[in-house]
Design brief:
The protein is an all-beta fold. It has strands at about 1-5, 10, 15-25, 35-40, 45-50, 55-60, 65-70, 75-80, 90-100, 100-105, 110-115. A hairpin with a 4-residue loop joins strand 7 and strand 8 (about 75-80). The protein is globular, with a radius of gyration of 13 Å. About 30% of the residues are buried.
């Protein structure tokens, strides 16, 4: 199982970024996918989830209204777009999947929000 994130970078406050995570080694379309983040000096926190059936989405309060999680099962890819980025969004963003009770994480993609 492999999860590979991309799309991070340096962005000014108020800007937008779209991250991608490509999954392999499992049947991507059959699993719920999530994004987490870890800010410097803080614990990892949940950001958003998209179910594999119906594509229902769920967001942390800090992400509601300015984030969109989506997936393209044909490309084995889950996306996270965040708009109106704030300095407090600075973190490493991780892709996550739980396969039969076992957790798998990507290595993360760094997002720095700074002017």
């Amino acid at each position: 199982v492999q999860l590979v994130e991309s799309g991070g970078g340096l962005v000014q406050p108020g800007g937008s970024l779209r991250f991608s995570c490509i999954g392999s080694g499992f049947t991507f379309s059959s699993y719920t996918m999530s994004w987490y983040r870890q800010a410097p000096g803080k614990e990892r926190e949940w950001v958003a989830t998209i179910e594999y059936v119906g594509g229902r989405t769920f967001y942390a309060d800090a992400m509601k209204g300015r984030s969109t999680i989506s997936r393209d099962n044909a490309k084995n890819t889950v996306y996270l777009q965040i708009n109106r980025l704030k300095p407090e969004d600075t973190a490493v963003y991780f892709c996550y999947v739980n396969l039969g009770g076992k957790s798998y994480w990507g290595k993360g993609t760094l997002v720095t929000v700074s002017s």
